[in-house]
Amino acid sequence: MGLSDMSETRQGQGDDDGDLVARARSGDLAAFERLVRNHQQRMLTIAFRITGGYEDACEIVQDAFVAAWRGLCTFRGAARFTTWLTSITVNLSRNRLDQIRTRRRNEPVSLDEPRESADGFLPREAVSGTPSAQEELERRDVRHHVQKCIAELAPDFREVLVLRDMEDFSYEEIATALRLSGGTVRSRLSRARETVRECLKRVIGVL
Amino acid sequence: MDHTELRRKLSDYLDNAVSGTERREIETHLHGCSRCREALAELEQVVGVIRDIPPVEPPHWLTTRIMARVREETAPRPGLLRRLFYPLHIKIPLEAAVLVCLCITGYYLATMTAPELAQEPSRSRQAEGTHRLPEREVPQAQQEVVPQGDKPLSRPPLAPSYETHPSRSGEVVAPVPSSREEPEIAPRQLPPQPPDTPAATAPSDTIKAEKALPAPSQVLQGAPAPPAARKGQRAVTAESVQGARDAAFPVPAPVRITIRVDDPVRAEREIEEAVSRAGGTVVRTEPTPTGRTFAVRVATDRLPDLWSRLERLGRVTERPHHPTGAPGVVMVTICLDAPP
Predict the structure, then answer these.
(1) Beta strands B281-288 and B291-299: pairing type?
(2) CB contact, 8 Å: B63 with chain A?
(3) Do B70 and A61 touch (CB under 8 A)?
(4) pLDDT, tens digit, for every residue of A71-85?
């Protein structure tokens, strides 16, 4: 399956948000509930990929939709509703990530627990080393390792990769949602993909 | 385009985010470079794997919970009255209890602080009384401090300064004590007495004078009126206890004696010496057209001594009738008459 085909399958989501947003701005709760149902999974995925915690992601999504409801009057439609909502979700995810880091930094260190990596994440198991039989089986699961390699990315790079390759945002939308320039988005995306590729080659060997 | 530059652009090339020129350059390079083709294939594979990762399934309650929170946001906030008093069966008794507690606290505070406020006038009264009652002791102390004859008007700090005040007819009738130094003297002179004892409400001839006459400093120095608080305190003190004091102690009336002398300068010195030897104090002296007046404070039982000393100085033209046996202190105005 080509990249353009995959893009087409994910495109089109949220194109009919305009009418729902207009009704929600006038106080139509049913319209807003439709928006919630349309976008909650996407926002949950983004929050989960950025924070790495399901519970945290669920709370972030709730907060994001409540914040969107409060801020609907300020939403003028310059960007797509999805982009605007994603911007809120990413900001809340960053804040939650900072809280998680601070919490983990203040927790007593156990020799049994893995150390914090340079980007603030705590890898649950070593990527290299002598693998057990179970680990050898998991090693074959490329998707599992891809997720681990993505989780090891620095947050700034991970956000761009998640939005582009997992949620299929355009470069312009990513730049809008993350308040970055187009060049920065391209640069970060290129480095993020290259880092994941190297990580996978290191873990699996041959792709 | 070298290998490093091409590798950097492979990501954009995959997303079809390069210009036509760049695309041709990249494809030309890839056509002749197997390693860069391999890198592109790997990158495409990685992106494909990432895009194959399924989205996260939301919990079934997520929509419900989000909408519940949104409805909370849209629900109108109750008004101030409703927030204050509703539910009635809880908040009304609670607020009533708080109100009762506040009233009790206020009453308690009022009863705790009121006696202090009420004691203020009596304290000042007591201070005045304690200051004036032991009149016999004061002259002895003053005799040690005040130099004989030279500068009778310059008072040491410990000596209570008394000034004479003109009466309605313009005549000097009564000296008035200044309360500026009262606190320094009162505690040493007399031990504190219960408020109901006669000593605490001791009669004071000066109180009457204070009530009728302007403030001492006003008379003596032409200064502005004393602060209102002081005046109010004096008024309350004089008016409220005057009757009780008069009933308890007979207040000696001011006494006036006039002596005609030939040598006024010498007579002045001798008057001051006579007063001092009689245990009295010259409170104030003022020149008159024909001589000088001395306001003197002296114990009543020493008056005969003072009369006899004054009679030696010259001819007494006006002699008072005074119950010399009564205890207390009397203010005497000695008029020195020296006709030219």
Answers:
(1) antiparallel
(2) yes
(3) no
(4) 888 887 777 899 999
pTM check: above 0.80: no
- From A101, A89, A31, A32, select the one nearest A58 (Cα to Cα): A89
Q: Are B49 and A146 in contact (CB under 8 A)?
A: yes
Q: Which residues of A touch B48 (CB under 8 A)?
A: 1, 3, 6
Distance CA B36, CA B13 (A): 13
Which B positions 14-43 lie with beta carbon below 8 A of chain A?
14-17, 42-43
Task: Count CB neighbours of A52 within 10 A.
Answer: 18
CB–CB contact B49 A146 (8 Å): yes
Main-chain phi, psi angles of B59, to 5 degrees: -65, 155
ipTM, interface predicted TM-score of the complex: 0.76
Contact A142, B49 (CB under 8 A): yes
> What distance in Å separates residue A5's CA from the closest CA in chain B?
11
If one looks up domain A132-207 in CATH, what number appears? Answer: 1.10.10.10
A148-163 residue pLDDT tens: 899 889 999 999 999 9
Q: Give residue-wise pLDDT tens across range B227-241.
A: 444 444 444 444 444
Q: Quick one: pLDDT band at residue B159, thresholds 50, 70, 90?
A: very low
Whole-number Å distance between alpha carbons of B34 and B6: 13
Residues of chain B contacting residue A44, judged by C-beta atoms under 8 Å apart: 55-56, 58, 62
Q: How far is B78 from chain A (nearest CA, A)?
A: 19
The Cα B336–Cα B340 span in angstroms is: 13
Of A4, A6, A196, the CB nearest to B46: A196
Environment class of B146 (CB within 10 Å of its CB; exposed 0-12, middle 13-18, buried 19+): buried
Cβ proximity of B66 and A65 under 8 Å: yes
In this structure, what are the phi and psi dihedrals at residue A119, rounded to the nearest 5 degrees? -90, 10
Please state which CATH class domain A14-107 belongs to.
mainly alpha
Percent of chain B beyond pLDDT 70? Answer: 56
What are the structural domain ranges in chain A?
Answer: 14-107, 132-207
